[in-house]
Amino acid sequence: VHPNVSQGCQGGCATCSDYNGCLSCKPRLFFVLERIGMKQIGVCLSSCPSGYYGTRYPDINKCAKCKADCDTCFTRNFCTKCKSGFYLYSGKCLEKCPDGLEANNHTMECTSIVHCEASEWSPWSPCTKKGKTCGFKRGNEVRVREIVQHPSARGNPCPATSESRKCIVQRKRCQKEGKGKKNREEKRKKSSREESKETRQESKGRAARRQNREQRENNNNNNNKTQPKKRKAPNRGESLEPLGAAH
């Protein structure tokens, strides 16, 4: 035992030295050597730090370093996260992924190559030309499909999602505007809306004229009440009998 071994240690140490720090740990704690300059100091921790893995023994629990290319590990031969520039695959850190796998730069792992997958084609659309289904003999019909699985970086690219081909149909005349039951119904509704609009306008006009007329009559009545009545002048053609004339 080192001559400077002390029993009154701090920080979870069971025994310690002024020069080397912890020499042994209390139960369930892990002993790990930390380098400070040219010297290594023993410390006791509840879990091993990043870059170390823990091993339990009957007399002591120790933390040992992972491999140089491994950032975190479960055991020395099983890495759980690689350092920059390496890709994780089956617990190992590789500079290049094996055949059939590709490097995922987001997770820094070797993953399976995913190819694009598309759904089945839809049925062909009706034959059309310039958006119409009548008035022509030769047109085009279209079918579509959807992408159900997008590819990974090295996967096969997706195919086209639409196809068009020429089609021939029996020519039929387009229904002219104004003919047919549907067009007659629309025209009748439009006429009814216009008539209703004109009726509303006429009603508003009559109401406005009635209001103006009543206003004028009220103004005339008020003027007649405030002005004195004028005496009616005799007609010039009437002759006035002199008073006291003898018959």
Automatic annotation (TrEMBL):
SUPFAM superfamilies per record: Growth factor receptor domain (SSF57184), TSP-1 type 1 repeat (SSF82895)
Chief location of this protein? secreted
What residues does the R-spondin Fu-CRD domain cover? Answer: 11-110
What name does UniProt use for this protein? R-spondin-3
Q: Which domain of life is it from?
A: Eukaryota
Example GO CC term: the record gives: extracellular region
Per UniProt, the keywords (alphabetical) are: Disulfide bond, Glycoprotein, Heparin-binding, Repeat, Secreted, Sensory transduction, Signal, Wnt signaling pathway
Q: Which gene encodes it?
A: Rspo3
CDD domains listed in its UniProt record: FU
- Region ranges (Disordered): 169-247
Per its UniProt record, what Pfam families does this chain match? Furin-like_2, TSP1_spondin
Asked if Transcription is a keyword of the record, the answer is: no
Q: Where, subcellularly, is it found?
A: Secreted
